[in-house]
UniProtKB/TrEMBL annotation, chain A:
Taxonomic classification: Eukaryota, Viridiplantae, Streptophyta, Embryophyta, Tracheophyta
Cellular component, GO, one term: nucleus
Subcellular location: Cytoplasm; Nucleus
Lineage: superkingdom: Eukaryota
Record CDD domains: proteasome_beta_type_5 (cd03761)
Catalytic residues identified in the record: 56 (nucleophile)
Main subcellular localisation: cytoplasm
One Pfam short name: Proteasome
Described purpose of this protein according to its UniProt entry: The proteasome is a multicatalytic proteinase complex which is characterized by its ability to cleave peptides with Arg, Phe, Tyr, Leu, and Glu adjacent to the leaving group at neutral or slightly basic pH. The proteasome has an ATP-dependent proteolytic activity. Component of the proteasome, a multicatalytic proteinase complex which is characterized by its ability to cleave peptides with Arg, Phe, Tyr, Leu, and Glu adjacent to the leaving group at neutral or slightly basic pH. The proteasome has an ATP-dependent proteolytic activity.
Protein name: Proteasome subunit beta
Family to which this protein belongs: Belongs to the peptidase T1B family.
Automatic annotation (TrEMBL), chain B:
Keyword DNA damage attributed: no
One of the record's GO cellular component terms: cytoplasm
Matching InterPro entries: Ntn_hydrolases_N (IPR029055), Proteasome_bsu_CS (IPR016050), Proteasome_sua/b (IPR001353), Proteasome_suB-type (IPR023333)
Subunit structure: Component of the 20S core complex of the 26S proteasome. The 26S proteasome is composed of a core protease (CP), known as the 20S proteasome, capped at one or both ends by the 19S regulatory particle (RP/PA700). The 20S proteasome core is composed of 28 subunits that are arranged in four stacked rings, resulting in a barrel-shaped structure. The two end rings are each formed by seven alpha subunits, and the two central rings are each formed by seven beta subunits. The catalytic chamber with the active sites is on the inside of the barrel.
CDD domains registered for this protein in UniProt: proteasome_beta_type_1
Keywords: Cytoplasm, Nucleus, Proteasome
Protein name: Proteasome subunit beta
Amino acid sequence: MKLDTSGLESAAPVWGAPSELVGGFSAAPSFELPNTTDFDVFQKEAVKMVKPAKGTTTLAFIFKEGVMVAADSRASMGGYISSQSVKKIIEINPYMLGTMAGGAADCQFWHRNLGIKCRLHELANKRRISVTGASKLLANILYSYRGMGLSVGTMIAGWDETGPGLYYVDSEGGRLKGMRFSVGSGSPYAYGVLDNGYRYDMSIEEAAELARRAIYHATFRDGASGGVASVYYVGPNGWKKLSGDDVGELHYKYYPVIPSTVEQEMVEVAGA
Amino acid sequence: MKSDAINVPQNEIAAFLYFSPLSTKCFSAPFTMTKQQANWSPYDNNGGSCVAIAGADYCVIAADTRMSTGYNILTRDYSKICKLADKCVMASSGFQADVKALQKQLAARHLIYQHQHNKQMSCPAMAQLLSNTLYYKRFFPYYSFNVLGGLDNEGKGCVFTYDAVGSYEKVGYSSQGSGSTLIMPFLDNQLKSPSPLLLPAQDAVTPLMEAEAIDLVKTVFASASERDIYTGDKLEIVVINADGIRREYMDLRKD
């Protein structure tokens, strides 16, 4: 199995004859693998020890006007919230978005790598890459690392010549084309709201509100999701960020506190 | 150390066999052979905490100087802070051998960059280099929890926080290490600003003065030393601003 190592190549050319020092860096890069008899056990132990940041809710769906993409912004390491402001919607290029679920480092690295590959495709072929093509590139890379412990559950959403496109790609090597997806620990809750409220012919505002509510409800019930619910829209002119709302504030917007009549009121007693 | 659990590269076999006389005995053991589990780990945790705070025109990076293993203190005087570039400093806690290797790797790459581009690396560029360097070892991670602090090209303070395999984020402040769960909530309370993801964007936090930030760091470490056994001895504070880099020390509890 030849691993895809293009993500590790240094972009800068090396001048002159490769000396021993520099030669070490310009030689064909590869991921170092530990010399263990039991690779899988080692990876499981390493993952437990390193506790990479994950846990999330992301969703995306195609509707009449284009693609709506939404995500929360919490990253957890075990039970500790390592960040409330993680960017989980990654801008691959001005008309394509990727979502991040699973290992944060895995998603960040491979999405950046995908962005590079998409740009190279544009330069080599003088036209933008399709969503089908971009998702296939990512899926092939992840398939080649199958079984090695990568954790990536991503959706590639974009608008190309054939119209809106949405693919789900994961680190098991799966790649699915579809109209509605939700990925992450909070996805069951998001699906409940999303499936209930979805109609193909919604307006952009209605679709954005549906996406926002679905993320809010997922953050309400899932401890590993929270922070800020970001909503993006992908249309024929590219993507646009529609909103970013703190989910705590969304709660009080959807369920405002209604002051109730007081039956008995406690009165302060003057000091004895 | 049992070398049957972990295969080692050929040229090191001699050294390992010298220290592991048991390796040949297993094969002559009669009949029932239960699977030998690895009881040697390539990792250790040397403890310690680090903090970084970004200001409008400065950056404060601080770490304690205690290095421990298990319940023992190896030294009270070990610096976890490393200057990577003119305006870029990294503090790392975790396994200091991996930290040292990581620092060497970054220093070497920075030197090549300087030769190729005739200038120092900027802090955001170094941040991405660190992320890629960490991810390069995705399948045998550096057990190193880093915060990177410095000034960006406009002279504004920036702090980047990492997990052990390279996921990173630009933030206003961060802490890593054994005391981070004690320190971070306090920093959130004092420094928390509206999230950069909010739309419409809300104004960032009112910036702390440099002296106030240093004071905050000292308070934070004094508190962390009270409740974290791996944090203490001495506090090393590095401040980067337009005038350059300066270093300060403060004593912490030695127990």
